[in-house]
Amino acid sequence: MKALITWGGWDGHEPNLVAAQVSEMLQGHGYSTEVFDTLDCLDDPEKLDSFDLIVPVWTMSELTKQRARNVSYAVARGTGLAGCHGGMCDAFRSNVLWQFMTGANWVAHPGGDDVSYMVKMTNPSHPLVAEIPDFEVKSEQYYLHVDPANHVLATTRFPIVSWYHSPNGAVDMPVAWTRSWGLGRVYYCALGHNQNVIASGPAYDMIDRGLIWAGQGKAPAQGNLHKLKEWDNDFSNF
Q: CATH code at 70?
């Protein structure tokens, strides 16, 4: 099993530390990992297609259309895509294909990095969250614009901090989910503003399971590549 981990962007999210933790987690499950601090590693679609899993750890960065297409192609063919916090769903704000593929885009975190909030498991029998209890975390609480097709695993209740969104009333915002992209598996968890938030406990367990689940889609996809013919379309806006 092979994983590509690429990190960079805003230093405040400690992308180097998160990437190192992800690499250690995956190696503990028998993966070999290739870690890059550049997006150049996304230039070769055939190389990307050779990985079981891609883990982006970038925030507030720019991704070219071609690199987004290369990742999209690899994931559609079965390579998993998994990540956390701003490293995946606030990675490339101007790239709509990336947002479509990952299932959401960050828009706000009212209260900043000092909010205590609950994370509630919405499907406690699901293998990715089974026996993980609801838990409290003190960190950024991500408000996201979310794809309704996501299979939500955990949520958090807004508003905790009063702001202009408060008159809209209470909403349960997804924190973690799975989704499909072609034949590939996509996993996201909104936790992880700093590496220590996901270094242990329930948050660690959620991400650890999500990484492994996403990487397990490559083998079964190989017997279904013929299905890509009905999905392969060249949309010029992407």
A: 3.40.50
